[in-house]
């Protein structure tokens, strides 16, 4: 029996335009109210940008933010788990990226982002909702390696999709013992503190709630969801997920733009 449902946000419960469909909202409400299943959110987003969805969906258990770097109750603000990147490690990787692999970077703290002045996101004529949400809370500096003076929850690299495998391989060769490194979307790579992941945070949350892994269902659409899907008793990959994720999943939902997950959950739980 499923007691906990862990859901990625972007590309999973949200459509590509950033909206939550009425069917998705209704199905999740019924799963909680009629079936007594707890729902949590597990995202690469910062906590603040997750909270509106947590409120809309009446989430009443801790949520996983920044790919598992932070586990926080959305109503009380109680923090159960917090694993940022140590500052010396962050400065080392930022110096390497700025000097050796120039690319667009977002350095995440609890309330927003630091970017450097060369970041192309600053000059996009028609930014997407994803870009607009981040630019609204960013601090612009000349050089991140010198001016980041906090322990980042996450460092994101915006990269062409064709270059992502090579960039990931290069970073893993140099920083695999210091960072968790994984593609988080078609155009981004996320760096977290070593051993931080959604799956590890979900394992911690399950123990805190007294729930066995066999009683967990999890859904996601990107490689930062992989170990969460593997850890859960029932793992769901979205139809818009990469093949590696689909191969690891127990179930594959339809596309996020076509209520794929909402339909699967409605049928599975009979709501």
From TrEMBL:
Cellular component GO terms, alphabetical: cytosol
Pfam families: Hydrolase_3 (PF08282)
GO molecular function: magnesium ion binding; phosphatase activity
PANTHER family: HAD SUPERFAMILY HYDROLASE-LIKE, TYPE 3, PHOSPHOSERINE PHOSPHATASE
Protein name, entry field: Hydrolase
Species this protein is from: Bacillus thermozeamaize
């Amino acid at each position: 029996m499923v007691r906990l449902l862990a859901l990625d946000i972007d590309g999973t419960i949200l459509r590509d335009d950033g909206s939550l469909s009425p069917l998705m909202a209704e199905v999740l409400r019924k799963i909680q109210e009629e079936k007594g299943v707890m729902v949590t959110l597990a995202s690469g987003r910062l906590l603040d940008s997750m909270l509106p969805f947590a409120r809309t969906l009446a989430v009443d258990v801790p949520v996983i933010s920044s790919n598992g770097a932070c586990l926080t109750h959305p109503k009380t603000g109680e923090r159960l788990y917090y694993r940022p990147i140590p500052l010396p490690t962050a400065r080392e990787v930022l110096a390497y990226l700025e000097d050796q692999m120039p690319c667009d970077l977002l350095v995440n703290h609890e309330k927003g982002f630091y970017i450097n002045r060369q970041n192309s996101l600053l000059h996009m004529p028609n930014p997407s909702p994803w870009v607009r949400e981040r630019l609204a809370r960013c601090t612009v500096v000349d050089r991140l390696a010198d001016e980041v003076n906090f322990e980042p929850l996450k460092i994101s690299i915006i990269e062409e999709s064709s270059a992502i495998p090579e960039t990931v391989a290069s970073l893993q060769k140099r920083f695999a013992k210091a960072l968790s490194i994984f593609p988080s979307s078609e155009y981004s790579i996320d760096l977290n503190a070593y051993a931080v992941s959604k799956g590890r945070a979900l394992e911690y949350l399950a123990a805190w709630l007294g729930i066995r892994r066999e009683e967990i269902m999890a859904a996601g659409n990107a490689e930062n969801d992989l170990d969460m899907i593997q850890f859960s008793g029932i793992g769901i990959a979205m139809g818009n997920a990469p093949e590696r994720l689909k191969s690891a999943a127990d179930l594959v939902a339809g596309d996020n733009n076509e209520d794929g997950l909402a339909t699967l959950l409605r049928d599975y739980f009979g709501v």
